[in-house]
Amino acid sequence: MDVDWTDWESVDTLALRQQRSPSAPLPFNWRSSFFYEAGVTRFFDNGFRASLGYIFSEKTVPNESFNPLIPDSDRHIFSIGVGKKYKSWDLNLTYQFAYGPTRTIDNPLAAPNAVPSPPGPPGFNANGRYEYTSHAVLCTIGYQF
Length: 145
Known about the structure:
The protein has a six-stranded antiparallel beta sheet with strand order 1-4-5-6-7-8, with no helix packed on it. Strands 2-3 form a two-stranded antiparallel sheet. It is elongated. By secondary structure, the chain is mostly beta strands. Helix content is about 0%, strand content about 60%.
């Protein structure tokens, strides 16, 4: 088990520098957040092992500064894996599924022709429904010497 805290509130504004344009400020206005992680591995006598894991990641971007370039939401991440130790070799195969419940952004300050909420350009509008789903497969081979 593990709990991780990220201090996003200490990242105020980043400046994007471009060669032929003035620097563009990119305000974060993010909240600090937590990751809650848990996992278990069962080792078998024949060198095989099986693992299960779960992570909950809190959203960090408040509705007022939501940007579809970073479609942040609460995330649930599940993983399952198998592995085998053979002499000095270590083989692993893992599948991970992640999803974020639907997040609806309805920010009246982000309406067209209104004063935009950071970090968007004039007329920026991120209002809408956002969903997140991800599948990942990982295969690793290790050698210990």
